[in-house]
Amino acid sequence: MTHVRDVMTEHVTTVPPDAPLADVARMMRDEDIGSVPVAEGERLIGMVTDRDIVIRCVADGRAEGARARDVMSGQVHYCREDQAVDDVLKDMGELQVRRLPVVDENMHLVGIVSLGDLSRTARPAETGESLKDISQPGIPH
After folding, report:
1. Segment 36-48, tens digit of pLDDT
2. Domain 4-135 carries which CATH code?
């Protein structure tokens, strides 16, 4: 059985809650990523996605002076590094997310895992089912 720790990306870029949103957006652009974990020390406290920036900030005309804490999703879905790949794929389908932060037994951020990472080792049927679930309209982000 393959575990998340075997396929996750270990080096994760994080930002503090007081990071200027313009800096977060530039980081996303420069690193070609769509989400950034918000952390205080090793503790994961939120996530900022490119969609969060647009929907919660730019669309409301609040971009000037905004910080990561102003747009981050405080309810963070995550997985543990010792979880089985197939289980996490199922969870991602139910949550309708394409990536999850990975935490250790002490709840410290140790990585991030994407649908693509998991699909390289999962059963094709499981990957397809998760992708179908993720693509369904339903959960507002």
Report:
1. 999 998 889 999 9
2. 3.10.580.10
